[in-house]
Amino acid sequence: MLYFSRWKSFLVLGVVLFGILATIPNFFSKEMVAKWPSWLPGQQLVLGLDLQGGVYLLYQVDKDEYRTTRLKALTGEIRRALRPSGEKIGYTDLRIRNGQVQVTIRDTDKIDEARKRLEPLVNPLVSTLLSVSGTSAVNEFSIEEEGATFRYQFTESGFDERIRGIVSQSIEVIRRRIDELGTTEPSIQRQGTDRILVEAPGLDDPERLKELVGTTARLTFHMVDTSMTGEQAEQSRPPPGTIVLQSVDSAGPPSYLLQENAILGGEDLVDAQTTFEQQTNEPVVSFRFNTSGGIKFATITERNVGRPFAIVLDDKVISAPVIREPIRGGAGIISGSFTVESANNLAILLRAGALPAKLIINEERTVGPGLGQDSIDAGEIATTIAAIAVLTFMILTYGLFGIFSNIALLANLFLIIGLLSILGATLTLPGIAGIVLTVGMAVDANVLIYERIREEARQGRSPLNAIDAGYKRALATILDANITTLLAAVILFALGSGPVRGFAVTLAIGIVTTVFTAFVFSRYLIAQWVHARRPKALPI
Amino acid sequence: MRLFRFIPDDTSIAFMRHRRWSFPVSALLIVASIVLFFVNGLNLGIDFQGGTLIEIGTKDGPANIGEIRSKLSDLGFGDVQVQEFGTPNDVLIRIVRQEGGEEAQQEVVIKVRERFQDTVEYRRVEVVGPRVSEELTRAGTWSVLAALFAVLAYIWFRFEWHFAAGAVAALVHDVLLTIGMFSVVQLEFNLSSIAAILTIVGYSLNDTVVVYDRIRENLRRYKKQPLSNILDLSINQTLSRTALTSITTLIALIALFIFGGAVIKSFTFAMIWGVVVGTYSSIFIAAPLLIVMRFVPGARTVEPKQDASVGKSDKQPS
Fold it and tell me: Which residues of chain B have a CB within 8 Å of the CB of A367?
């Protein structure tokens, strides 16, 4: 056990050297490391959000809300299909009931024609998942016919497919929005079927990020129904085809009665910017329509001079200006009670586009930069003190052999940090705890070996024999003991999340490096010492 | 240089005799832990219960807990806990889960921010909705059960079923006593507590396996000895190692407890307790359980691979 062939020595020292080299970049600034020759390892430890500060947001698509709006939209599609500009088909009882949309055809002699028009509305989707049967097309809706009544219902796979699509679209929109902030390197990932995880490190203003990410930003333009005020409509009942929406504009009335159908939507916008109104110097958002939107807007404003229209964002009226003259340039201004920041936010949201569905926050974890730095400092102090205490203890207990195990322990620390850097693993506060714990437990392997050597020496073996037997006998125990801890770490990694995962990673890496440094590297050191000194008695 | 000997070299403590008190004491503690768990309950953190946690730092001088509490009292959040956290300037606010699903939780943060504006530094904000807290509870429970099962399987594979049963009994003992401790001190039980429990499982097992390994070795060497003598001998032989490793681990953990900051204090506290309990259980529970289960060394089935290698080195040390 004490003989190391040349290539073996080479390998052992190589591994330790690798650990040291891979750790070094962490002592220097990012800028300095960037200038290094490329053959040197240049990766630095990735600090978790709990250490560098940042935001962790877990969003979920609001499926119920999506279901409702989609069914409402389907109702509109059915209406348009049966009452197109061409031949009309009489129908009755078009409504949403128990998650289904149903319609009854009155002109029973036109039922074949109706079927021909209604069937395409099941909306075939191309599935992104490979299905077992090999066909990859699913319909969003299934259609069921009973006499003259047609019923639409979400198919399960179609609905899931839509949600998956919404998640992908939302990720794109969120990315565009956060990119506008420009300062962070966010990570935006899909989680499961209906969740999106947004992680943004080192952010000073998490509330702004939340506002930017979580707002649906569905912009619509509606004509205002002036036959009664919003309050009156609320008390009685809004006439068919109209809705009452609350206003966020402190200048106007608290609510408005609007035509339910939007005259234009945010999808017709091509640009939005924050500008200042010349007279009042208040921040406003100026926008431009695309060509077709511009033409539509011009026609509508021409026809409705003198009447108010409402600019609605996510079912809240931002402002309801009166059309003074036809707007032909395809550009307009949204004024409301804006601050510079809220105007900026709205401009960003309009440029990046609306989210296809509402997102709800399931989980939020925000760490301020102050706490992150405090945690790093505390972790450094704790690691240093733990290491010094353990190193001193080992020298007091084992003398020279304690020094060997201490060198092995330092090599172990280098290997852990080096491996974490190379693997790009994230270091979290519990991760630091994992390292400190490893420092405490790492000596266990050496203690096992040394105690064994002591025992063997007491039984009258020569130093060389005792060392050899000590290492040999302790091996099975060391492996058993460490594999069991490794099992716990693997399970922790598989089932844990976030910072706890960081703990599992450092613990697992620590176990592997511990077995190497304690069993191989310390043995190498002792072998060198034995060959150099040829000891008659063991100083242990 | 004279070296420390924390444990003398040739101890011969009759550990097996102590099972007369260690078993009843442990049984009592386990029952007490279970009762506490059901009566006192755990101080579940927001990870498992949902709710809001906000750590704020005052900008001018020590925080006035009473003032902060009264500022929050009329917001209608129900149960609000305000406590000093780490330093006199840091305050931890915990607000129970609000009725009304995911969005109601978000309202809490908005209202608290409105109330304090920019007079404080928001060091940490955590909001866990009902859905995620349910999932985390499930994952946490599963991870502890899976760990126990994996350990059972591994020890069974490496040893015999008596050992596996003994080890798992010792682990269940450790886990229950740790949960009991959480209940007594009303320490917040959160995700990192699960991490602590799993690490305790790993550590305690580590200890148990070292003792078991020695028992297995001695069983082969001293075929004629009664089991309880072999158990005593094995524990005495590994005693010095057990003590040393526990001491170094405790040194590291205590350093972490004192200097590691308030965020991981509950984690390190649980670990310190776990190391003490785990060390105790491998000596006083795991080993004597072998006697209780009437483990008969002679009836062992021989594992050819391992026996061959260890057996050889027994006879001809190289």
Answer: 123-124
Span A430-489, pLDDT tens digits = 888 888 888 877 888 888 899 889 888 888 888 888 999 999 988 888 888 888 888 888
pTM of the entire structure? Answer: 0.80
The structure tokens 């059309």 sit at A323
- Euclidean distance between CA atoms A458 and A481, whole angstroms: 25
Q: Which CATH number fits domain A63-157: 1.10.10, 3.30.70, 3.30.1360, 1.10.3470?
A: 3.30.1360
Measured CA to CA, the distance from residue B123 to residue B63 in angstroms comes to: 14
Across B8-23, average pLDDT: 84
Q: Hey, are the CB atoms on A437 and B317 less than 8 Å from each other? A: no
Residue extent(s) of CATH 3.30.1360.200 domains in chain A: 216-360
For the record, the structure tokens of B205 come out as 């097992």
Scored b (16 or more CB within 10 A) or e, A385-403 reads: bbbebbbebbbebbbbbbe
* Interface touch B143/A495, C-beta < 8 Å: yes
Q: In what order do the strands lie in the sheet with A219-223?
A: A264-265, A219-223, A309-313, A316-319
Q: How far apart are CA B279 and CA B235, in angstroms?
A: 12
Top CATH class of B15-42+133-310 equals mainly alpha
Distance set, CA A437 to CA A154, B256, B263 (Å): 53, 9, 16
- Among residues 188-247 of chain B, which lie with CB inside 8 Å of chain A? 191-192, 194-195, 198-199, 201-203, 205-207, 209-210, 213-214, 217, 237-238, 240-241, 244-245, 247
Residue B219 CA neighbour count, 13 Å, CB half: 21
Enumerate residues 6+ apart whose C-beta is below 8 A from A81: A117, A118, A121
d(CA A97, CA A77): 16
Instruction: Tell me if A375 and B263 make a contact (CB, 8 A cut-off).
Output: yes
> B238–A451: do the CB atoms touch at under 8 Å?
yes
Residue with tokens 């431009």: A288
Strands A46-47 and A54-61: unpaired
- State the complex-level ipTM: 0.80
Instruction: Give exposure, B15-35, as e/b (b: 16+ Cβ within 10 Å).
Output: bbeebeebeeebeebeeebee
Burial environment of residue B127 by CB neighbours within 10 A (0 to 12, 13 to 18, 19 or more) = buried
Rounded distance between C-alpha atoms, residue B130 and residue B137, angstroms? 11
Both tokens of A66, joined, read 């999506």
For CATH 1.20.1640.10, list the domain ranges present in chain A. Answer: 6-52+368-533
B116 near A CB under 8 A = no
Burial of B121 (0-12, 13-18, 19+ CB in 10 A): middle
- The yes or no reply on domain B51-128 and CATH 3.30.70.3400 is yes
Query: Under CATH, which number does the domain A216-360 receive?
Result: 3.30.1360.200
For residue B3, give the DSSP letter.
P
CA distance A511 to A444: 11
3 state DSSP class of A33:
helix
**Is B265 in CB contact (< 8 Å) with chain A?**
no
**What distance in Å separates the CA atoms of residue B236 and residue B12, rounded to the nearest whole number?**
6
Extents of the domains making up chain B: 15-42+133-310, 51-128
Q: Would you identify the CATH topology of the domain A6-52+368-533? A: Multidrug efflux transporter AcrB transmembrane fold (1.20.1640)
- For residue A226, what are its two tokens? 């002036």
CA atoms of A414 and A427, how far apart (whole Å): 14
> B68-109, pLDDT tens digit by residue?
888 888 888 888 889 888 888 899 999 988 888 788 888 888
With a CB-CB cutoff of 8 Å, which residues 327-366 of chain A face chain B?
A: 360-366
